[in-house]
Write a structure and sequence with these properties.
The complex is a heterodimer of chains A (306) and B (514). Chain A is built from 14 helices and no strands. The mean pLDDT of chain A is 83. Chain B is built from 16 helices and 22 strands. The N terminus of chain B is likely disordered. Classes of the chains: A mainly alpha (306), B alpha+beta (514).
Chain lengths: 306, 514
């Protein structure tokens, strides 16, 4: 087990290194940040001086090596726009993103699993039809549209919820709803089909034939085996939400990391893009590591395979 | 019931919220925010910012509509530009030019920072020294680079000496905010703020909001509101929704299509105002086919039906350009100048006379996302230019990409863009066309000479004369197609009316209770 964990951790570190390198190169293709940093009317000499101050006139390889040296010493650079350590700016926004992601994952998984179970157990009934239709809708509805509709209904029309920002439980309701609907829809469909597959297996038929109580058969024989793909999927979904909740964060003025990274891209704030992506992908890799470990707990075969 | 629910759930968190249930406490701990209620206090004004703040540091802030506007509530400037666009003293009581290079400024005695330290001549000098210190990298340094040094004459009097005449100095000082030396040394002014203005910083959640409360020691009139909240809402549709749900008292950059809807509501109203931003088509006078072809550049000016575009796109709002970049709110505006009339026949004639092989084809760059309805305007303009026989291809570009090429001197043949200068002084806007500016795309020694002459004197009358000649020269040489001034859209709650101002400042004092 220890060897397995170690090999996974090494893999994670290699992946992180590759990712940071790619981000470094890609962000340099965005163009020159200096034109956005200085007020209009700045002379060519000022622009050049600013470029030198930021070290952007150096050869790319030189910049990259310097960047790696700094990363290894834990320094992800100073944000051009905020003029503060980029990592600090990112970490400042992390609690908001984590709160939203954690809550949405919790609700999304709970609702999704429940709906998937209902759909599988009541096959070919109104329930299954209802769950599948709603899940389809949930997956097909663009998040920004849903978010704006919720705002129109609950904030403008009914006046129950604030349109955005943070500060109270009510502020969490709509952003969490939009994100958990997306998760629940994915999970419900996956869990249903996974359950249906398991239901046809010999050991489930045997369990029923043995006369075990339905609760035991469902929770122990069916759900435990059907949940494996759900674990993988939820890891991916949570990872996606960490950095990809841009739409939700923008619409609900949520001070999270996703929006920060997108704004940094627009501002060509290289250090901030790098720090943001490094933190988010680091977390993503941690989540996927956790999923793998969880997987090996749920399914002993994983541990034994080379 | 609804109100009860709202009250319970939106109740202030903090000392008074300690007795909330364990579940709520857990959730708040999860969010890790030291929250201030959004609408719980009696007299709270909520203002939407269309973009996030980048800094609270007065010497790093370059954006008027966001960073500088918030800063202007907390810090005291020497002078301020009022909603009627006049310059009045704040920390300065009077100023006069002793000669072309020396300004004498008298200070108001008795101004205190909220930490109790006085704002006197020594502090003013320190602020300039701090800005000009070669080891202190700031983005606004360029605005003040002509200042050579500042002398303390008396505790309430300073002398600013410039290395060359700097007639725009006083207008520029309306963007210069005074910090306290000992506080600045010990704190991070990018995230914290301590000034001597009418409000003080109560809370700053990066990316979300800034909360201000009155400064009890302010020397001026008592702040009109118990709390001012600036909320950063970048999505225009959400700004409209927040306004309609009663959460906002002021929002700018409202989509024109939403204005009627807002006005039909019972909670808010929306409107249009004039802005100082001149929309133009910049012709690259250094590239074919516009280089060395005055007739073609003039033909472009005759070919476009400006009023038609204003009516169709801006619902009739926005002023037509009077043959110059300046609008009446600028110092140096030339009220004698006649605009190019809409005359497609004349345009065809000039094109025929241009001596270029027909059809003349070029690319019109249209940056997206920065200017109001730029895509639509670009299409109308291209169609009107095609009507007079020009072969125009539209190239829509993401704004950052466009500006990247633009500031490097790599602009295409023609670009649709807007230009404004925050000090509302002709020097800034016309200075963008000096041959030394990488974004000028026009090298005209006669024009440059006039602008530089105007820059070299502080005599207002002389400057006006030079600017009249310079604007005339620019109109005739047509390095740009003069279009119109982009209107500014805004909306306020029915509790207030908003004194529309043409520059970008967003100030709570301009909101007038009804």
């Amino acid at each position: 087990m220890a060897k397995y964990i170690l090999s996974r951790v090494v893999e994670v570190l290699i992946a992180l290194f590759g990712l940071v390198t790619i981000i470094f190169l890609v962000s340099r293709m965005l163009g020159d940040p200096v034109s956005l940093l200085l007020p209009q009317g700045a002379s060519a000499a000022d622009l050049q001086a600013m470029r030198e101050q930021l070290g952007l006139q150096r050869p790319l390889l030189d910049q990259y090596l310097g960047f790696l040296r700094h990363v290894l010493s834990g320094d992800l650079g100073t944000s051009f726009f905020y003029q503060r350590p980029a990592l600090q700016v990112v970490l400042e926004r992390m609690p908001a993103t984590l709160a939203l992601t954690a809550l949405s994952a919790l609700f999304g998984l709970a609702i999704g699993c429940l709906a998937g179970l209902v759909a599988a157990l009541y096959r070919n009934s109104v329930w299954e039809f209802l769950v599948l239709t709603l899940a389809m809708l949930g997956q097909a509805t663009p998040a920004f549209w849903l978010a704006i509709m919720l705002i129109l209904l609950f904030s403008v029309h009914l006046g129950w919820l604030p349109t955005g920002g943070t500060g109270s439980v009510l502020h969490l309701v709509m952003p969490t709803a939009v994100m958990s609907i997306f998760i629940a829809a994915n999970i419900a469909r996956l869990f249903r089909s996974s359950l249906l597959e398991v239901m046809g297996e010999d050991y489930v038929r045997t369990a029923w034939a043995k006369g075990l109580p339905p609760r035991t058969v469902i929770s122990w024989h069916m759900a435990r085996n059907a949940v494996l793909p759900v674990v993988t999927m939820s890891g991916l979904l949570v990872g996606e939400m960490l950095g990809g909740s841009v739409v939700v964060e923008t619409i609900f003025s949520w001070p999270g990391v996703g929006r920060l990274i997108v704004e940094a891209v627009a501002n060509r704030d290289f250090p901030l893009i790098q720090a943001g992506v490094a933190v988010v992908s680091g977390l993503f890799l941690l989540v996927s590591l956790a999923v793998d470990l969880l997987y090996s707990l749920l399914d002993p075969r994983v541990r034994q395979s080379p | 019931m609804r109100h009860l629910l709202r009250q319970i759930l939106l109740a202030p968190v903090g000392k008074s919220g300690m007795h909330t249930s364990r579940m709520r406490g857990w959730l708040f701990a999860l969010m890790m925010f030291n929250a201030v209620p959004a609408s719980a206090l009696a007299d709270t004004v909520n203002i939407a910012l269309s973009a996030g703040l980048t800094t609270l540091d007065p010497q790093q802030a370059t954006v008027v509509q966001t960073d500088l506007s918030v800063i202007s509530h907390i810090y005291t400037p020497l002078v301020v530009r009022n909603a009627d666009l006049s310059i009045i003293g704040v920390a300065a009581t009077s100023w006069k030019a002793l000669d072309d290079r020396t300004w004498d400024i008298k200070l108001r005695p008795g101004i205190l920072f909220t930490n109790g330290k006085p704002l006197d001549a020594a502090v003013v000098k320190w602020n300039f020294d701090h800005l000009l210190d070669p080891n202190h990298k700031t983005r606004v340094k360029e605005w003040y680079s002509l200042i050579d040094h500042v002398d303390v004459v008396a505790p309430d009097e300073v002398k600013i000496v410039t290395s060359a005449p700097f007639p725009g100095l006083i207008a520029q000082l309306s963007m210069f905010f005074l910090m306290e030396p000992t506080w600045t040394a010990a704190h991070d002014p990018g995230r914290e703020a301590m000034g001597s203005g009418p409000y003080q910083l109560a809370q700053y959640v990066p990316g979300e909001r800034v909360v201000l409360t009155p400064n009890p020691h302010y020397f001026g009139p008592k702040a009109a509101h118990d709390q001012v909240i600036f909320r950063m809402i970048s999505d225009p549709a959400v700004r409209v929704s927040a306004l309609l749900s009663g959460e906002l008292d002021l929002a700018l950059d409202i989509p024109p299509t939403d204005i009627d809807r807002i006005n039909k509501s019972s909670v808010a109203h929306a409107g249009w105002g004039e802005s100082s931003r001149a929309m133009i088509i910049k012709l690259n006078s250094l590239k074919k086919p516009f280089a060395d072809n005055l007739k073609l550049r003039q033909a472009m000016n005759y070919a476009i039906d400006r009023q038609g575009i204003i009516d169709a796109i801006y619902n009739g709002h926005g002023a037509m350009s009077k043959g110059q970049l300046l609008s009446p709110m600028y110092f140096g505006y030339n009220d004698k100048l006649q605009p190019y009339p809409y005359d497609p026949d004349k345009a065809r004639q000039l094109i025929a006379q241009s001596g270029l092989p027909q059809p003349i084809s070029f690319e019109l760059q249209v940056p997206l996302g920065r200017y109001l309805l730029s895509q639509e305007i670009g299409q109308i303009i291209a169609a009107q230019l095609q009507d007079v026989g020009l072969d125009v291809k539209i190239r829509e570009m993401e704004y950052a990409n466009w500006s990247n090429a633009y500031t490097r001197g790599d602009m295409g043949q023609a670009s649709f863009l807007g230009q404004a200068w925050p000090t509302l002084d002709a020097d800034g806007l016309l200075g963008l066309y000096l041959p030394t500016d990488p974004g000028a795309y026009w090298k005209d020694p006669a024009f440059a000479d006039l602008v530089l002459k105007a820059r070299s004197t502080v005599d207002k009358q002389k400057r006006i004369v030079y600017y009249q000649q310079a604007t005339e020269r620019m109109r005739d040489q047509a390095p740009v197609v003069f279009l119109f001034n982009q209107p500014l859209t805004y909306a306020t709650s029915n509790k207030f009316s908003w004194k529309v101002r043409g520059d970008d400042w967003v100030r709570v004092d301009d909101l007038v209770a009804k």
